[in-house]
Design a protein that fits this description.
It comes from Mesonia profundi. InterPro entries: FAD-dep_OxRdtase_2_FAD-bd (IPR003953), FAD/NAD-bd_sf (IPR036188), Fum_R/Succ_DH_flav-like_C_sf (IPR037099), Fum_Rdtase/Succ_DH_flav-like_C (IPR015939), SdhA/FrdA/AprA (IPR030664), Succ_DH/Fum_Rdt_flav_su (IPR011280), Succ_DH/fumarate_Rdtase_cat_sf (IPR027477). This is Fumarate reductase/succinate dehydrogenase flavoprotein subunit. This protein is of the alpha+beta class. The chain has 18 helices and 19 strands. The chain has a five-stranded parallel beta sheet with strand order 5-2-1-9-17, sandwiched between helices. Strands 11-15-14-12-13 form a five-stranded antiparallel beta sheet. Helix 3 links the parallel strand 1 and strand 2. The longest helix has 27 residues. It is globular and about 80 Å long.
Length: 667
């Protein structure tokens, strides 16, 4: 076991990033024209980085499996993006954003990285406004803000309920400008199949054209992975159906350490599972918790009556409702962090207070907000004693202006009107804080291989605060990677083009073709989805919201057996040299079956509870997470050794010089 060097600069926290930018090497504009960069993934992290690097003069190749970068999963981040602008004048600052993020991650993230994230957050908003992103504005013309979980200020910028989509369109337009200039070559409907190393450095990828089935070689001086998270290892998640871990896992198998895989976020505000044939889950934005109040009935008699259809939630009076987050966490109420809110919902449902037929749902109710906004609007209209009908009408109009598309989506899926009856929600797998280990420069343990956004582990610790995913992706892409990658590429100005006819490319392409051939020649007893669903059940039941040593050890054994059966008996229809969705899924599930085992191993070794990693053996008397800072205050980075359960542990010790380590409290 080795101790990893994060390359955090010396000096005061607030000066680290500025000093680092002043110290690192640069590439002169004339030399940038001779340097190639591959970008795998074109969501917010990849799209912003590709556009910025091309604007600087580098030659960029982008790869995405979608038919357009506009279909990246980033568009699903509806609620907003954090930045410490302090437009509300409520006491926000770079330090406050830094503090909230470290605390929200349960003190399992780097101080240096997180402060840099807070420091550049304001620049992101300026950049996106310049691109024309239509952020909501308040009456004075300033950009509006709302609150998200785990904070006591309003710092989340938003564009109604479609923030991710609007931000992605901004990055996409910047990309298109560079495509039109010839500085970006865009390879859509292409999937990275392997990473190519030459003399120990990342020098290219093997990709599959998903339309023709052709295996292609692409070389570059550096490779950036911006391919998102691995939540679909659980099968049911809020991720897009195509989201996968292949790019990151291929790099892991080539030598990039995988950090903290067990840190997976369960989002508290999702539409509950409706049946065994469901293929994905739908997220209701955390922004709804600004105005929605979460509750279950106080009495089990009312719970049973609601489940049996004898009562409606609107029949229950305020005294008959348990607003359990407001009761347990009075300081933060419904805006506690996601891991806290998720566990609280599970506790109420496990205790028998779940309100749907399966007993796995709680209410998210907007009645109070409609009344509050309606009275305020009526007062502004000069109506001092408005009728209940007028209050309700005006209140609904304001809620619609803030969350209308989210309410519409809920009604289409559930066939219930959330303006009239409370939404039903339940926690679901959403975001992965784990990912490829990177240093302060966003470089993995493979020289020349970088990872940005959700593909890396760096900024969120054991739990991500809401509205910070978009912030990290755009911070990495617009303001961090364009500096740090230049330090590495400054040594390549005389290298020239990287040839693709080398023995290293030959070997990597052969490995890819052999793997495809093995998948196609399996016996064909069960579909790919059969194995994915079985893996998902193991992961959710034994590695999900709550974990224990017995279940995790069982998961290790069950996943290994499932993986062996997969390779022997999976059924992949069609042919490898043409369009083949089943082959694509098979390759992704094969990687999930390896990742799942490493996930369980990581969760088993970490004998503590922190953030999204909740071990039942380690909790306070009140059911809160119980950290062990003496033994586990480190990043667990795993080296691939040929078998996930034999992965070698490397530690990066976490130091806290600017924040006091203490038990999180949102009470």
């Amino acid at each position: 076991m080795s101790v990893l060097d994060s390359k955090i600069p010396e000096g005061p926290l607030a000066d680290k990033w500025t000093k680092h930018k002043n110290d690192i090497n640069l590439v002169n504009p004339a030399n940038k024209r001779n340097i190639d960069i591959i970008m795998v993934g074109t969501g917010l992290a990849g799209g912003s980085a590709a556009a910025t690097l091309a604007e600087l003069g580098y030659n960029v190749k982008t790869f995405c499996y979608q038919d357009s970068p506009r279909r990246a999963h980033s568009i699903a981040a509806q609620g907003g993006i954090n930045a410490a602008k302090n437009y509300q004048g409520d006491g926000d600052s770079n330090y406050r954003l830094f503090y909230d993020t470290v605390k929200g991650g349960d003190y399992r993230s780097r101080e240096g990285n997180v402060y840099r994230l807070a420091e550049v957050s304001g620049n992101i908003i300026d950049q996106c406004v310049a691109q024309g992103v239509p952020f909501a504005r308040e009456y004075g013309g300033l950009l509006d803000n709302r609150s998200f979980g785990g904070v006591l200020v309003s710092r989340t910028f938003y564009a109604k309920g479609q923030t991710g989509q609007q931000l992605l369109l901004g990055a996409y337009s910047a990309m298109n400008r560079q495509i039109n200039r010839g500085k970006i070559q865009s390879f859509n409907r292409h999937e990275m199949m392997d990473l190519v190393l030459v003399d120990g450095k990342a020098r290219g990828i093997i990709a599959r054209d998903m339309v023709t089935g052709e295996i292609e070689r692409h070389s570059a001086h550096a490779v950036v992975l911006a391919s998102g998270g691995y939540g679909n290892v659980f099968f049911l998640s809020t991720n897009a159906m195509g989201s996968n871990v292949m790019a990151a896992w291929r790099a892991h198998r080539r030598g990039a350490y995988f950090a903290n895989p067990c840190y997976t976020q369960i989002h508290p505000t999702c539409i509950p599972v409706s049946g065994d044939h469901q293929s994905k889950l739908t997220l209701m934005s955390e922004s709804l918790r600004n105005d929605g109040r979460i509750w279950v009935p106080k009495n089990k008699e009312d719970v049973l009556a609601i489940r049996e259809g004898k009562k409606k939630p609107t029949d229950l009076s305020e005294d008959e409702r348990d607003y359990y987050l407001e009761r347990r966490y009075p300081a933060f109420g419904n805006l506690v962090p996601r891991d806290v809110a998720s566990r609280a919902a599970k506790e109420r449902c496990d205790a028998g207070f779940g309100v749907n037929k399966t007993g796995e749902a709680v209410y998210l109710d907007f009645k109070s907000a409609i009344e509050r906004y309606g009275k305020e609007a009526a007062f502004k209209h000069g109506h001092k004693n408005p009728s209940d009908e007028e209050v309700t009408k005006l209140g609904k109009e304001i809620i619609e202006s803030k969350y209308g598309n989210l309410f519409q989506m809920y009604q289409k899926i559930v066939d219930q009107n959330p303006y009239e009856t409370p939404m039903m929600i339940y926690p679901a797998v959403h975001y992965t804080m784990g990912g490829l280990w990177v240093d302060y420069n966003l470089q993995t343990t493979i020289p020349g291989c970088y990872a940005t956004g959700e593909a890396n582990f760096s900024d969120h610790g054991a739990n991500r605060l809401g509205a910070s995913a978009l912030m990290q992706g755009l911070a990495d892409g617009y303001f961090v990677l364009p500096y740090t990658i230049g330090d590495y590429l400054s040594k390549d100005i005389r290298t020239g083009k990287i040839p693709t006819d080398s023995t290293e490319f030959d070997a990597a392409e052969k490995d890819v073709k052999d793997r495809i051939d093995r998948l196609m020649k399996a016996s064909g007893k069960h579909s790919v989805d059969h194995y994915h669903k079985l893996l998902g059940k193991i992961m959710w039941n034994k590695c999900g919201m709550a974990r224990n040593a017995t279940d995790l050890q069982s998961a290790l054994d069950e996943i290994k057996a499932l993986r062996e059966d997969f390779w022997a008996n999976v059924k992949v229809t069609g042919k490898e040299d043409t369009k083949n969705a089943e082959l694509e899924k098979a390759g992704r599930v094969a990687d999930f079956l390896e990742l799942g085992e490493l996930f369980a191993k990581d969760a088993l070794h970490r004998n503590e509870s922190c953030g999204g990693h909740f071990r039942e053996e380690y909790q306070t008397e009140e059911g809160e997470a119980l950290r062990d800072d003496e033994h586990f205050k480190y990043v667990a980075a795993w080296e691939y050794t040929g078998n996930p359960r034999d992965a070698k542990l490397h530690k990066e010790d976490l130091t806290f010089n600017n924040i006091e380590l203490k038990t999180r409290s949102y009470k």
